[in-house]
Amino acid sequence: MKILIASSIYPDAIAQLKERHEVICAFGAGEEELKARITGCEALIFRSGVQITADVMRCAPDLRLILRAGSGIDNIDLDYVQGRQITLVRIPGPGAKAVAEMSFALMLALARNVLTADRLLRQGRWAKHELTGYLLTGKVLGIVGAGNIGTRVGRLGAAWDMEVLGCVEHPTAEAAGRLATSGIRLATFAEVLARSDFVSIHVPLKGSTRYLINAQSLARMKPGAFLINLARGGVVNEAALYQTLCEGRLAGAALDVHEQEGEGKISPLAELPNVILTPHIGAGAIDSQREIGEIILETIDSFAAKRANKELAFDWEVVPTL
Ligand code: MLT
Q: Which residues fall within 8 angstroms of residue 289, CB to CB, at 6 or more apart?
């Protein structure tokens, strides 16, 4: 089978795919390169950081299987995929564990000034009495988007003795019950903003969530709170966040995802000392990527076997939450 891998995945998975299939790697490629290299491919594997447009997929008339090696599906033309009935398989579970832990890494780093402490000490400054900070224990953790990842973050928060509030796009009794089993109380978006000491964002990027965190929603946050974005850059209006932080209304923010991502891009937020910026590494834990690699191999093998037996391979599978 001919497979295009459009993003870097676990190296061992690539090596094993190469043993069994014809594999083309095109990491970080633009549209024209992808159009050229996808020709003749039956399967495509991709992550964030690449745009899988209808024009790209049109260049692969035999394309039958697309593997999203992770969660987000904001960078693929879903209407086209559905229209052509190409099977799309997401692999959201392994990365969710890594993103949830990263949310805690960022909350702790913000609350205890870990990055500032490190920077000052490297300059010879022993700022023991300046660098105080806050506990997470006993604080209110607000999850915006209590889906697959958000629920994991909430569960960790509950284990940390935090009061955990979570909001979802479609609040139902079933959602409230599901969240309650993870120690999360279903709340409105307004309550999450108003009451939380730490707000961690985990919604997918789509029309209704673009700039969900804007000047108005930032103004409704509890003064002195911290904001953590591990969802997508377009969910937070960074200019509004910059303004809010400059006015001192929030204590700090951590962003793993950005409005502008990629080599050489420097966020204006980098000017501010109470901001932590990381390069979209939330799901990047080796353990998670290894697990994703294993699932890719199983899925490709199963697809190839079913195709060989002329069975219809898979059902359309898209779970619309991160
Ligand atoms: C995801 O959506 O799974 C993450 O953004 C990780 C990635 O694919 O780069």
A: 9, 10, 94, 283
